[in-house]
Amino acid sequence: MEYTIARTYPHKILSEQSDPKVSLYMSTHRDPTKNEADRIRFGNLLRDLENKLKKVTDSKKQKTIMQTLNDLKDDRTLWNQRLDGLCVFINGDSCVVYILSNPPRDMAIVGQRFHTKPLLRDFQGLDEYQILALSAKEFTLYEGNRTGFRLIPPKDDEPRKIGDFLGEEFSESYLAQGSYGGVGNTPMFHGHKSKKDEVDKDIERYLNKVDKFIKDTYSMHSKKPLILFALPEYHAYFEKRSNNPYLLKNGIKESPNELTESTLKEKAWKIIEPHYESTIEKLKDHYEKALQKDRADFNINTISKAAVNGRVETLLIEAFRIIPGRIDENNGYLIQRDGSQTKFDDALDDLMDIVLTNGGSVHVIPEEKMPCDTGAAAIYRY
């Protein structure tokens, strides 16, 4: 069985009916000298998983799943792509791998659903952001959180360079690296003086197109705050002209060619942290006010029933909390299980899936930021 590296959530494997559903998580190191140690830990998780599979599935499916996972362990290409964590979803027919920027706890789980909560932290965490690293020639896009960031590679033939955006309207023949003070004192390419006005117009069209492309293709879908990483003159232009509601006013006003990864991470988090803290406080304040009006709850049983009836508008989930069991999607009853059982389900996974399916929003946040100690807090629509 081949595997796919997924970059978006949710993936179609989550809706596939093939059993068993195996979820494997482990933290990894960016330091390549610890690569072998990570692979050894992965192998230990596989031994634990194999014992669980023997008790819940036939030998043919077990062999197929374990062969695929052992192939992953030996795949050097995969391990060279590591960040801070790895997530593997595998059933009898498909295998999907996520490279995580949030370190999860090591676990190997067999259940009726895939265990999605640690993964959701990477895609719907309130500390998530994107970085637009922009120069006069091209741009690069990153996504990150408090632990670091990663490159967002172009999809298919997505534009990245000025020539990609301007096409036949643009000619590089007279351009050299440098700058003119152009629109809004934006640094421009320079060439022959007779071409300066034409070059400035090229840059203005380029910046307008980049702004629209990032907004329509990324920001409006991810809804993550966007940090502009560029020379100060570009910030002046975007502050006046940008139509992206997710672009933060304060960005990184330096050349993208001059910062190291560690320095960029530090500068990005310094910008995002106040935004993150403010968002958490607004959610908690909204929850407390709703609680006073009987439009919020922290009892998992009550929340489950409200969720299946489509009443949950916003759900806050404690990041590492697990409630062994499942939720009956017909009536919302919580069916608890002994966490030591071989076949494992997390009721909070069920709850998140139900809320998302019914159009609600889910936020996975740290324990110390939760407004209650039950693992879940819900704000109701009515």
Quick recap of the structure?
It is built from 10 helices and 16 strands.
What's the SSE blueprint?
Blueprint: E1 4-5, E2 21-27, H1 35-56, H2 59-73, H3 76-79, E3 85-90, E4 95-100, E5 107-111, H4 117-124, E6 129-134, E7 139-145, E8 148-151, H5 162-166, H6 196-222, E9 226-230, H7 232-241, E10 252-253, H8 261-292, E11 296-297, H9 300-308, E12 312-318, E13 325-327, E14 334-336, H10 347-357, E15 361-365, E16 376-380
Parallel strand pairs: 1-4, 6-9, 9-10, 12-15
Antiparallel strand pairs: 2-3, 2-5, 3-4, 6-7, 7-8, 11-16, 12-16, 13-14
How would you explain this protein's 3D organization?
Helix content is 37%, strand content 20%. The protein is an alpha/beta fold and 382 residues long. It folds into three domains: 4-115, Translation, Eukaryotic Peptide Chain Release Factor Subunit 1, Chain A (2-Layer Sandwich), CATH 3.30.960; 129-275, Nucleotidyltransferase, domain 5, CATH 3.30.420; 294-380, 2-Layer Sandwich (60s Ribosomal Protein L30, Chain: A). Helix 7 links the parallel strand 9 and strand 10 (252-253). Helix 1 runs antiparallel to helix 2 (59-73). The protein starts with a strand and ends with a strand. 35% of the residues are buried. Residues 173-193 have low confidence and may be disordered.
